[in-house]
Amino acid sequence: MSALLGFLAGPLLAALVKVFENRVAERSETARISADLAGQAIRGEIEARAHARAVLIAEQGHFLSAARLGRLLFVLPLGLWWSAVIADSILSFDWDVAALPPPLDEWAGGILLSLFLVDGVQGAVRAARAGWSDKG
């Protein structure tokens, strides 16, 4: 009886070990493929950022860059609107300037914040760096 059990257990045990090894190999392959895909995504993001940086560097110093034109498309109409509101409020014209509808009113505040706060801080940092490089 023990000879029969030993004979049956040997091939059965070998088959179970083979199934286990196949599962481990499949999981390892899945993990490798996932890591490869993540690496490709990261390399793609790095490449996209490098291209965006190259565009920004190429546009520096050009008055009609895409970034500057994009800003002007938003800033000029808002500047005209704010000027009309201020003139109408101070000089009591009968213009009855309409309020901006949502979400444009929130966007206008964000654009104003960007212009005066963010750009101002960036300008101060550039000036400070230029001052530090002159001293060094």
Describe the structure.
The protein has 136 residues and is mainly α. 85% of the residues lie in helices and 0% in strands. It is built from three helices and no strands. It has helices at 2-59, 66-91, 104-135. The longest helix has 58 residues, at 2-59. 0% of the residues are buried.
Q: Structural class given helices, strands, pairing?
A: mainly alpha
Could you give a short account of the major beta sheet?
none
Globular, elongated, flat, extended or rod-shaped: what is the shape? Answer: elongated
Helical amount among residues, as a percent range?
over 70%
Strand content: under 5%
Q: N-to-C SSE series?
A: HHH
Rounded to an integer in angstroms, the radius of gyration calculated over CA atoms is: 33 Å
What structural keywords apply?
136 residues, 85% helix, single chain, mainly alpha
Précis, in short:
85% of the residues lie in helices and 0% in strands.
How would the blueprint of this fold be written?
Layout (H helix, E strand, L loop, with lengths): L1 H58 L6 H26 L12 H32 L1
